[in-house]
Amino acid sequence: MTDKRAKRIARLIDPLRVDPGAKVDLANDFDPGYRSDFLRKKDGVELLDTGIALLADYQARLAAEGTHGVLMCLQALDAGGKDGTIRHVMSGVNPQGVHVSGFKVPSAEELDHDYLWRYACRLPARGEIGIFNRSHYEEVLVVRVHPENLDRQKLPKASKGKNVWDRRYGEINDWERYLSHNGFKVVKIFLNLSKEEQRTRFLRRIDVPERNWKFSAADVRERRRWGDYQKAFSEMLSATSTKWAPWYVVPADRKWFARICVGAVLAHTLIEIDPRYPTVSDEARHNLGVVKRELEAEAPEGAAPDPYIAGRNGHQRRGSGKKAKKARV
Ligand code: AMP
Ligand code: MG
């Protein structure tokens, strides 16, 4: 990774990070239509492609090293672009190393457990990237805006007093610190959509038949609570952006820009972890040499002792020429 590329990524995402301890007022502090002055849409496509290739390389190293895991939490209001962002940003990575988990209204079984249980069940393993499409932050967002959700959580009376939200912020911060101490980096993204852009996207979902399924009447009901959500988001961002698990507020009105930013945040996280392919000990290398000689000695008549090396050196490998073609006829 060139230092220049890493610096460019850092420069792009720096203004989006919520400083730990900062008091956020979403409407005043973050513009959903913002884009960096050094980026235009035409450069954006190219940058996203480069970013995707970079992610694929880092993911392969993360998996090979098997020490760290990454959890990226995506939060947004309806039509904020979570699904499309995941599709684009993760398009180049090996699906084996990525787990996307979506969270909806909790099931009866989930409600029988503590509120973090269902999220803990979906955490990535070492070497994996986990993506939460909605996350444990719903527990201080939709549950706060609609307190009847809290009533359904079967909590003892003493656990649902007035200070319940502050307590949850603290519990979430502690949980994320615990994960980070144990090798799992948590990074959180809020896709910040404007009310007008949400209106446009809702109308598109109504106007285009193939998109009708994406729209539900509940979405407009939630829209009527816009102010309550902005307040809940602002408080959540103020209380839970930490050194070990920072929040990034990504401007979401331009999809192309949001996708680049999300890719950049993930790339930055992986660059900081800097996973390496494991190297083998001298003894293991010696043993590899012994096995190599054994395999070379097995070469049939006329075959190169090591066809891989022979191929790399430009020689034609047996079976790749006429014979292979004939067999297909
Ligand atoms: P969607 O992601 O649009 O399919 O919708 C999922 C719905 O589940 C959203 O309306 C969320 O607000 C809701 N949801 C997610 N987590 C929770 C939760 N912990 N409690 C109540 N509702 C939730
Ligand atoms: Mg929805």
From TrEMBL:
Record-given protein name: Polyphosphate kinase 2 family protein
Keyword Kinase found: yes
The keyword Mitochondrion is assigned to this record: no
UniProt organism field: Pseudonocardia aurantiaca
Keywords annotated in UniProt: Kinase, Transferase
Example of a GO MF term: kinase activity
Region (Disordered): 296-329
Residues annotated as domain Polyphosphate kinase-2-related: 53-270
Extent of Basic residues compositional bias: 314-329
InterPro entries per UniProt: P-loop_NTPase, PPK2-rel_1, PPK2-related
